[in-house]
From TrEMBL:
Example GO biological process: regulation of cell shape
Highest taxon in the source lineage: Bacteria
PANTHER family according to UniProt: CELL SHAPE-DETERMINING PROTEIN MREC
Entry keyword annotation includes Calcium: no
Purpose: Involved in formation and maintenance of cell shape.
Entries under Pfam families matching the protein: MreC (PF04085)
GO cellular component: plasma membrane
Protein keywords: Cell shape
Rod shape-determining protein MreC beta-barrel core domain boundaries: 125-270
Family assignment from sequence similarity: Belongs to the MreC family.
Protein name from the UniProt record: Cell shape-determining protein MreC
Length: 288
């Protein structure tokens, strides 16, 4: 072994140094390559940084905008749902108030029904003629309910009009403000008689009153019962203006109806013939 070492020592030493040199060279070359790769990566990264930053910022803006859109869209849907719920609640509240108001008005009619000397049936206005000059109304009761043509119609305030046409379940009302309407009336205090006639434009007059009669604004005119349609003593209206026509035989007396026809909703229709008994009302129009 010693002889082998002594014999080949120079060769072995040279081979060792060659291996070490080769290792060092290989390591150095690898480090250089890695350094170049790192440099290349850094160069590429540096060159692409503005683009990456712009892309990242754009993506952030897009994502943020999309999230805001989804949030606002959901918020709008929730608001729309809440608006519909609020509208429905308000409508239900309106219906409830309207029902309560109608029930109150109907209860008032029920209170006076037993005091009347004739049989009546409650009826509600369900339609009005679209032509203002005609002034007819449709009620929700007809011949099937005992309503007959010519029946008198009234409400809490006084005389409303007369039934001129009936169907099985509806009837047509001719109000006293109609130009073809006529009601026999009498002044409550002075007992001056006349006929209440409408003009078709909402006004009514107390006709055929002697020019010598003494009348005053505010006098209450009630039904006289002479027409055999309306019971005696029902309020028709109050005098608002009295004029003497030159060379005329009669006074021109304008009255204001006791009934507000623009707000008329509930009525009472007479369904029994008049008897000899009369229904009297006090000066202010209340039943006594």
């Amino acid at each position: 072994m010693i002889s082998f070492w002594n014999k080949y020592r120079p060769v072995l030493v040279l081979f060792f140094f060659l291996c070490v040199s080769l290792f060092i060279f290989t390591r150095s070359l690898r480090d250089q390559l890695q350094s170049k790769q790192n440099y290349l990566k850094m160069a590429i990264s540096s060159a692409g940084y503005p683009l990456q930053k712009a892309f990242s910022s754009a993506m952030q803006v897009i994502v943020s905008g999309w999230r805001k859109y989804l949030f606002l869209n959901n918020l709008e849907q929730e608001n729309e749902t809440l608006r519909r719920q609020l509208a429905q609640t308000q409508f239900q509240l309106y219906q409830l108030k309207e029902t309560q108001s109608e029930q109150f008005r109907m209860s008032k009619l029920l209170q006076i029904q037993p005091e009347l000397e004739f049989e009546t049936i409650q009826a509600t206005v369900i339609g009005r003629d679209s032509l203002n000059w005609f002034h007819t109304m449709t009620l929700d009761k007809g011949s099937a309910n005992g309503v007959k043509k010519g029946a008198a119609v009234l409400n809490l305030d006084g005389v409303v009009g007369q039934i001129i046409m009936t169907g099985p379940y509806t009837s047509t009302l001719l109000p006293i403000i109609h130009a073809e309407s006529g009601v026999s009336g009498i002044i409550k205090i002075s007992r001056v008689q006349g006929t209440v006639i409408g003009t078709g434009d909402g006004r009514i007059f107390f006709k055929y009153v002697d020019r010598k009669a003494i009348l005053s604004a505010g006098d209450l005119i009630v039904t006289s019962g002479l027409d055999r349609i309306f019971p005696k003593g029902l309020p028709i209206g109050r005098i608002i203006n009295v004029q003497k026509i030159p060379n005329g035989l009669f006074l021109e007396v304008q009255i204001e109806s006791a009934v507000n026809f623009s707000r008329l909703e509930e009525t009472l229709i007479m369904i029994s013939p008049l008897s000899d008994e009369k229904t009297e009302f006090s000066n202010n129009g209340d039943m006594k």
